[in-house]
Write a structure and sequence with these properties.
Elements: E1 4-10, H1 28-34, E2 39-46, E3 59-61, H2 69-76, H3 79-86, H4 90-98, H5 103-112, H6 115-123, E4 126-129, H7 132-143, E5 149-152, H8 155-166
Parallel strand pairs: 1-2, 1-4, 2-3, 4-5
Helix pairs in contact: 5-7
Length: 167
């Protein structure tokens, strides 16, 4: 059996990997890399994340991908300003999470509009969302059977960055 293809999703860009964990806990990415079949490639899909490809993978930065006309319209009429203002309170963050400018929804729209990102997900066996913004993409890939396994694991962000720096 050949190695697994893994895609790591950094949907929030620079906000990724703020989760905490015990030093003895392993990450999903670490567990996959330790499997007997190993990882053939680890691809990264991000928005503005300064990372290098891992394990013969590629890094797709979707910063330049336009999420669509609806997003441009919302930004034009102050939607982004409202989102930032609401993010200062728990109730506001809840309202933001249900709206169209939620980071996960915007990231999912960027992935849908990128043929390279969609192809990377179809090639992958495992999708790992390292922040809440990547969860929608990982769950959608699993539901559509583009991947066999999907996880949400903030600890994988640290492993991914460490592997990137060591490569």
């Amino acid at each position: 059996m050949t190695g697994l293809r893994v895609v790591v999703l950094y949907g929030s860009g620079h906000e990724s990997g703020h989760g905490s964990s015990l030093a003895t806990e392993s990450s999903r990415l670490g567990e996959v890399l330790a499997r007997p079949e190993g990882a053939e490639a680890v691809d990264i899909i991000s928005v503005g994340m300064p990372a290098r490809p891992l394990r013969r993978g590629e890094h797709l930065d979707l910063s330049a991908v336009d999420p669509g006309r609806a997003d441009a319209l919302l930004r034009r009429f102050g939607g982004e300003r409202l989102r930032r203002r609401l993010s200062g309170s728990p109730l506001g963050r809840l309202l933001n999470s249900m709206g169209p400018l939620d980071a996960g929804r915007v990231f999912a729209r960027r992935v849908r509009r990128s043929t390279e990102a969609r192809a990377a997900l179809r090639r992958a066996d495992i999708a790992i969302a390292v922040d809440s913004a990547g969860v929608i993409v990982a769950a959608t890939a699993l539901r559509r059977r583009h991947v066999r396994e999907a996880y949400y694991d903030t600890r994988s962000a640290v492993v991914g960055l460490r592997e990137s720096l060591e490569a």
